[in-house]
Amino acid sequence: MDKIIGIIGGVGPYAGFDLSKKILDNTIVNSDYDHIPQISLSFPSEVPDRTAFLTKKASLNPAPSLLQLINKAYTIGARVFGVACNQVHNKLIFDNILNGLTQPDIELANMIESTAIYIKTNYPDIKKVSVLGRTGTYQTKIYDDYLKHYDISIYNHGSDLQDILDDAIANPIYGIKKYSTPPIMKTLDTVINVLDRVIDNGAELIVLGCTELPLVISEKFYKGIPVIDTTEILAREIISKAAPNKLKQL
């Protein structure tokens, strides 16, 4: 019997719905009745800002709020969970969630760990990876330990380029968080320019390390360079835990 999936969205909201869709897209079914049941909770105003916490501009850890949402979905029946946000997987947040779980049958998928395993399995010769995401991901090096475990180094694209990327994602006037379907062309051009620059500097693979980025960049390859959608990686990890026999082959 399939385990019920709990999607913790709202961080941001479109990313949560994108995760839900990619779970559907990666599930083997013959009809709608075959899909794995999902419970999706999106309470944006209840979860403190992840970037502000990780960059030490705010002291409130988002973990307790996220744990409350997990527990709420658990009471309805969810047992396998995924949080649609890269920054939440920083150990300062993620470990606090894990340590707060009191139900032994909860399984919480780890987006970052799954992405590192995916890269090593599918691109074993890759040695230099560019991780593109929010400033909290960049400054706290969320991916570093996982990728270093597989002898993969991360290309540091520098704070100037990071500021440009973060602005494209989160600017309250034209950022992806406000306009993602479709994005404002200026914002999309900015993201494409960032891709060009990291490739020109030797990146062999690009990780879309913010769940807003796959909303506007859907290509699996860009200029011959693999582009990894971390939301899809998380979706597949969730399916493998909830109903492994229903996971589509890549």
Write structural notes for this entry.
- By secondary structure, the protein is an alpha/beta fold.
- It has ten helices and nine strands.
- It folds into two domains: 5-111 and 233-246, 3-Layer(aba) Sandwich (Rossmann fold); 112-230, Rossmann fold, CATH 3.40.50.1860.
- The strands form two sheets. The protein has a five-stranded mixed β-sheet with strand order 6-5-7-9-8. The protein has a four-stranded parallel β-sheet with strand order 2-1-3-4, with helices on both faces.
- It is globular.
- The two termini are 23 Å apart.
Quick overview:
The chain has 250 residues and is α/β, with parallel strands linked by helices. The chain has helices spanning 13-25, 50-54, 63-76, 91-100, 111-122, 135-140, 144-148, 159-170, 185-200, 230-242, and strands at 5-9, 38-42, 80-83, 107-108, 128-132, 153-154, 205-208, 221-222, 225-229.
